[in-house]
Amino acid sequence: MSICSQYFPEEPKAPVVATQEHPSVKSKVGIASLGKVFDSRGVYFVADYQKSNGNYIADVDGNVYLDVYAQIASIPLGYNNPVLHEVAQSDKMIRAIIDRPALGNFPGKDAEEIISEILKVAPKGQDKVWSALSGADANELAFKATFFWYQAQKRGYNTEFSSEEVSSVMHNQAPGSPELAILSFERAFHGRLFASGSTTCSKPIHKLDMPAFKWPKAQFPSYKYPLDANVEANKKEDARCLAIVEELFKTWSVPIAGVLVEPIQSEGGDNHASAEFFQGLRDITLKHGALLIMDEVQTGVGATGKMWGHEHFNLSPPPDLVTFSKKFQSAGYFFHDPEIVPNFAYRQFNTWCGDPARMILAGAIGQEIVKHDLSSQAARVGAYLFKKLEAVQSKYPEYMRDLRGKDRATFIAWSLKDAAARNKFLVDMKSVGVNIGGCADDSVRLRPTLVFEEKHADILVAAIEKVLSGY
Asked: Which of 159, 351, 371, 458 is labelled catalytic?
């Protein structure tokens, strides 16, 4: 019996399309009502989570969609997973919820045990963690850690702050508030907060009207597809982009303390790069005394066929910090260098320092992924699905271009001919019972759960072909 069948014996066998419109009547009423107290303009439909099961999400109008978007890539083990239900009802979870501790001051006696469960699935080379509240928060905390580390390397890790630093920082002036930068990439997405917004460069809507740090943006490789027919061109593209990074380190107006990069640029279009490119980034950061931050918010926790997406690259040495959220149902960053811990207490700190309830859930998710080898399952199903999508691409090349994600499990995407066609496709897929998401201007991305199987892939491919055949 498959793990999906074990978890979800009552999972639907196929989507149910109960209405002609998506969203339909009850969803529209719910969206309008919600809009009186909450900004509901981005709502696709109102879900019925009690009726959602496994890989299927239900709405209030009776539609049951095969969900290959999974709450923007953040559902790891399917809807209403019984193991996670059991964890949620445990005494440990109840204590964490109702007596939520201020971890930095009053950790519970089970805090080390909770953290140890998360570290069991940490990226290779990482043995420490700092927790956060969201993916954007994780990245911003990683920026703080990077800046603290960078200045400590110059000052001396255990050296006291100078009187000039202490006085100038109260006026937001150097040397207490130094001019430093985080280098990120065009088309990247790292969050919508202030510092993370300054590193995000996928869509204007994410950051319009926000003051921004004047930090450098390098170019991320734009590969030609299929990869095996464009090896030399893509090698040249790697070299071109690495040369830009090197030049920015040499010429930027302030020191670059860290490089922030996604193993696969997700929101920005599912843009891939090679192991050679990422090793090149690692080498450049070492050369210039900067840290390498891997943003694994979307690629982490088994989504690409390995527990962490950057593990495909076998980087040497490993990244300095790895941020996480989404499928882990928790957030934070992993690291290994003791000097990334700030030199004095209360520098990396807030009331809760994360959320033990979500950390408990993360530990349980990691345990289930390891127990059932769900990363390998995702890789197997992804290979099966990719081959089928290649056949669809050959039939409909205008509507399925640049199919990408080979050997990256179900982390698959493709481009349509333009933004209008992509947006129509996303809507039309609901009419055949599939909830699917987009990225960038004209791309479709797949983000199913880790319990997505070949039978679900068959339903998905049949739905795609049905929609495309009508264009």
From this structure: 351
